[in-house]
Automatic annotation (TrEMBL):
PANTHER family: AT07410P-RELATED, N-ACETYLTRANSFERASE-RELATED. GO terms for molecular function: aralkylamine N-acetyltransferase activity. Its EC number is 2.3.1.87. Pathway: Aromatic compound metabolism; melatonin biosynthesis; melatonin from serotonin: step 1/2. It is an enzyme of class 2 (transferase). It comes from Anopheles arabiensis. Keywords: Acyltransferase, Transferase. It catalyses: serotonin + octadecanoyl-CoA = N-octadecanoyl-serotonin + CoA + H(+); serotonin + (5Z,8Z,11Z,14Z)-eicosatetraenoyl-CoA = N-[(5Z,8Z,11Z,14Z)-eicosatetraenoyl]-serotonin + CoA + H(+); dopamine + (9Z)-octadecenoyl-CoA = N-(9Z-octadecanoyl)-dopamine + CoA + H(+); serotonin + hexadecanoyl-CoA = N-hexadecanoyl-serotonin + CoA + H(+). Belongs to the acetyltransferase family. AANAT subfamily. This is aralkylamine N-acetyltransferase. The keyword Transferase applies.
Amino acid sequence: MKVEIQNHVEHLPSALNGMTLSNLLTRSNRMASKAPTICDGTANAVDAKLSEIDRELSISVITEEDTEPVLDLLKRFFFKDEPLNTYVQLGECKELEKYCTKSLGEHSSYKAVNSRGEIVGVILNGTIMKPQPGDEPPAKLADNCAHPKFRKIMALMDHVDEQFDIFELYPDIDRFLDCKIISVDTNYRGMGIAGMLTDRTLDYASRNGIKLIHVLCSSHFSARVMEKMDFNEVYRLPYADYLVNGEQVFDPEKPHVALRILTKRLDQ
């Protein structure tokens, strides 16, 4: 497989200058970084697809102009395959679309593109700033979510935020880069694309003085990718332990048994 890395000089966006920390610290940036499940198929189906795969890929930064093709990829794969989305049978969700694209202006997210110009994988990232004394606490995600199925997922994210504060674990960190979503076209899985996209994210963080990378994984497979890249687990919530009114809310298919937060420091 030939992979071309397109060089870009990316820095933290100028739009961040002059913004208050309370504006930057949006709880919606804390939603899970998830990779869709790997879909198994018959050998014949796999053989048929292999002939269609374009293995000449390039990795480059995502811009606002990529919004529609990025959403197209996510709707075809991530929206359907991510374990919690699958469990609640999420369907169309404009609120999830907005969440996925809200940080593209930072130019910290990356895409894998084949020689036909098709986006076959993405990693969507966003910067989270440490709250400062006097900042108003952000509203809970579920409170502002009109989509009933997506609200269940947002309530889980609110619960995690209440139970775990990454800035308490890393008191010397004033910001971190959150890998929110990783998604790869089914036909291109198993080619190391998620790892290449993560490598590019690590490079972005290093060049911009960001010392910590954070990933909230709802998928066993995304967590496995991060562990192979030396990310360490700092929080785990088994789905069986997340109860509302005494009842388990999520029970996705195995091997997806827990929501996990993994981190990697870049200054050690």
